[in-house]
Amino acid sequence: MHYLFNIIRLLVVSAVIVFLFIITSGFILLVVAIGFVYYKYITLSKKKCASCGKRIKKSAAVCKYCNTIDAS
């Protein structure tokens, strides 16, 4: 009977480890997906100022940080 409890305990511990691995992997994939969407949003909606390098709106002609006229 003692050996049966050891086998059951090992199975439960391994199942918990596998479950936590799957949850952690899913969380990491979710964070990567959110980061990718945020990166695409930034690159599609903003551009870099040619002189100071900060991100400004694509429609802006004058940088709000350094007040230079953006030629690009």
Model description:
The chain starts with a helix and ends in a 15-residue tail after the last strand. The protein has a two-stranded antiparallel ribbon. It is built from one helix and two strands, in the order αββ. The model has no long low-confidence stretch (mean pLDDT 89). It is mainly alpha-helical and 72 residues long.
Oligomer: single chain
Secondary-structure element series: HEE
Mean pLDDT: 89
The counted number of beta strands is 2
The portion of residues assigned to helices is: 55-70%
List the helices and strands and how they pair.
Layout: H1 2-45, E1 46-48, E2 55-57
Antiparallel strand pairs: 1-2
Summarize the structure.
The protein is mainly alpha-helical.
